[in-house]
């Protein structure tokens, strides 16, 4: 994915031509969203059983993950689209993340009633060496200005083209990435296509002291998470979760929010005109983010992301 040399920032016309000539056929055959970290059996993932409303076995982390004042040596992948630390959960109906939340600590890229018996694969991997650590290090240092940290381990859980309960054939893809540097903890959420659904759904995180809601819906919804972001890159959200007041991200949100929810939604436009992290000052403009990305990425997947970002 990465170049060994820097690329110049290309005029958009040139990018379009490159896409048409060399990248389009590849884009059409892409089976995984470009933002996603490696996943699946080809990446050496552990694949979860095809069982509804269940969870992975306990996954022991390389070192404890710090999450808003608590430190967890293990984690669970719950099939209905979320991670928990102290105990697995089969709950298929989300609990709203707000100041009244009293549930267990949770990171939920997309909590709803998923059923991987029908179609799709849920899998996970814990990396302690290799390119994934380099990629995570690059991502957190890009998004959180002032951060100069290296990933110690990276945990990736992916829901690839999974179905909703009682809706065989629906396909939704999303991913959550936990990054520990030892002293700090970060979460990335990556979204591909999310199928329409008719069930309560939620994306965000919650602890006893902090919560953040990307999406909360209690009825039928066309969930457009793949075009939402708090870092100016459609389909990606990034959080610093070991103590920073991430609720500050809720400042000045856009009029182009992709959801009807009243929660802390954001969008590419919002991220491009606001500073999503008050204490860390993530990228302040979409253009800046894209240009920086072009310096380090050079295949058509990333150019495709560029293309989407521009238009
Ligand atoms: Ca389910």
TrEMBL record:
One of its GO terms (biological process) is cell-matrix adhesion. It comes from the Eukaryota. It holds the Pfam family NIDO. Residues 255-284 are annotated as: Disordered. This is NIDO domain-containing protein. InterPro entries: Alpha-tectorin, NIDO_dom. Residues 109-244 form the NIDO domain.
């Amino acid at each position: 994915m990465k170049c060994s040399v820097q690329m110049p920032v290309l005029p958009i016309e040139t990018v379009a031509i490159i896409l048409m000539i060399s990248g389009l056929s590849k884009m059409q055959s892409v089976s995984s969203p470009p933002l996603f970290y490696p996943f699946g059996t080809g990446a050496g993932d552990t694949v979860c059983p095809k069982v509804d409303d269940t969870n992975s076995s306990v996954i022991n982390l390389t070192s404890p993950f710090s999450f808003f004042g608590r430190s967890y040596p293990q984690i669970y992948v719950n099939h209905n689209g979320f991670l928990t630390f102290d105990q697995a959960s089969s709950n298929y109906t989300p609990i709203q993340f707000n100041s009244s939340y009293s549930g267990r600590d949770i990171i939920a890229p997309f909590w709803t009633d998923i059923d991987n018996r029908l179609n799709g694969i849920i899998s996970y991997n814990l990396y302690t060496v290799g390119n994934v650590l380099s990629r995570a290090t690059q991502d957190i240092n890009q998004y959180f200005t002032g951060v100069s940290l290296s990933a110690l381990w990276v945990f990736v859980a992916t829901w690839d083209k999974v179905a909703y309960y009682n809706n065989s054939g629906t396909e939704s893809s999303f991913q959550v990435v936990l990054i520990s540097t030892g002293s700090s903890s970060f979460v990335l959420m990556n979204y591909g296509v999310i199928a329409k659904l008719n069930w309560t759904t939620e994306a965000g995180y919650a602890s006893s002291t902090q919560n953040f809601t990307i999406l909360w819906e209690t009825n039928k919804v066309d969930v457009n998470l793949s075009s939402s972001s708090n870092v100016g890159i459609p389909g990606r959200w990034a959080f610093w979760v070991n103590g920073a007041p991430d609720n500050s991200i809720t400042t000045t949100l856009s009029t182009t929010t992709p959801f009807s929810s009243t929660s802390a939604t954001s969008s590419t436009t919002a991220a491009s005109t606001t500073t999503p992290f008050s204490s860390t000052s993530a990228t302040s403009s979409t253009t800046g983010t894209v240009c920086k990305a072009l310096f380090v990425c050079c295949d058509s997947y990333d150019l495709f992301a560029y293309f989407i970002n521009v238009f």
